[in-house]
Amino acid sequence: MCALHWDDLKQGLMDRDMWSLVASSDRAAVDRYFAEADDPRMFDPLMAAYWQIQSAALEVCGMELRGGSNVRERDCSLCEVIEHGEDADEWIRGCLDVQLAQARKLGLMPRVQ
Ligand SMILES: [Zn+2]
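^ thats the input. predicted complex w/ zinc ion below
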């Protein structure tokens, strides 16, 4: 994901007061990823958003997402979906709203903010 879209994702989590739920390091993110199988409360909304976007982008773009026969220097699923006529800002907003709902369901965020 490009720096612009990565920053948009992070800012969206801060705007939703969810930043405290994000792992503090790459290593912690990996540890939490594996721990989440046993404890759903290890949920990391940044990584969850990232994988949700990757999955949805694969459905929209297919193999073009990874270059396909057209090798690209860029490796950002959101930049790629823009080329397919999608609104990346809307993708980020919708995806982060799903993460907020999940955090509330897990009791990690208050129902009303
Ligand atoms: Zn991008």
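DSSP finds five helices and no strands in the chain.
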